[in-house]
Request: fold
Amino acid sequence: MINDPARNAGGTLGDYSYGEAGRDRSIGELLKDIFGNVQEMIRSEMRLARAEIREEAGKTADSAKMLGAGAGMALFGAAFLLVAVVQLLALVMPGWAASLIMGAVLAIAGFALITSGKKHLQAPTPRKTIENVRENVEWMKNQTK
Reply:
């Protein structure tokens, strides 16, 4: 039998890990153990991925709320400043021309911001789950040697 530190330390890996003490197991039993462990690892990774994505989504939602509130306040402040700029321009040109210039400047700035924001938008990724899957693949490779 193989010297297993987890077994010697009293660790338990479930029904799939060890047969009866001192008994050699058949290939069928070994394959059953391997497939059982793989199934349990996949289930665990799925649970971890769901929990991790839920956690990341919660953080993203909180950030989005603060961004929305800040954007709303900034929008009102910017609107008042823009009205002041239009009124200032109206002193030296017709009011319609001042409004047209401000509208064009704002449309160009808005388009630039939207384009930049789309480039930096990222979906949350379950980093811990990805790392665990890599470790599990390595473990499975070592089990088949």
Notes: Residues 4-12 have pLDDT under 50 and may be disordered. Residues 21 and 113 are 68 Å apart (CA to CA). Helices lie at 5-8, 27-89, 95-120, 127-143.
